[in-house]
Fold each of these.
Amino acid sequence: MENIQEAILEPERVVAKAMCYDDVDEFPLLWKIKEDMLLAIKNAQAGWFDIRSWNYWHLMLDLKTIDEPLPDLPKRKFDIK
């Protein structure tokens, strides 16, 4: 994300980046925006999450159990003509 204007236009992407890169001390702040975190997961695009964060937040947000398969990370799609 290059600047504030882009961040304003893509708030879910900002939340996704916080979910990936914030440390454990900042997690209480994230829990205050749980609905935004759910939207970030639901609307994630390729590159927003790494596999570790993707799995962690699916478990923490009760989107899957430990025994269920992890949904695939969003992937970039290329249109070759």
Amino acid sequence: MVALKTIENFMNNKNIAVIGTSKNKKKFGYIVFKKLLKNNFNVYPVNPGLEEIEGVKCYPDVQSLPKEVKGVVFVTQPEITDKITKQLRSMENIEYLWYQPGSVDSATIDAERQFDKNIIDGECILMYLEPSTFPHSLHGFFKKVFGKYPK
């Protein structure tokens, strides 16, 4: 289980890349991007098929990201996540990797544990952004009740 302190440190960093940002308002890549913006994060969307989203410049790949980006959130398919995670290994400015549920397989996470990155997996970032809305607030409530909430 990921430590709550790791999540708090991630959230204290205001420069976050969302890998897999989408213009489709029903897709999770859009929802995470928009919620981070509403919470006053400097969001750096990454999607090779977009030049901008909601007036924010979109980056074609992680190598194009500015050095102030310290954390990334993955909302991609596991095979894309694995490929991009390998690219991030040599990027010293990236300290935090947040793998949204369904975006990563256990082999990728196991391989990354040997590198000097803080890994968050098995947690939905929307549970930790205020205000937490339904169904994320309910999910957080039940995780606390059943002792599954990070400590």
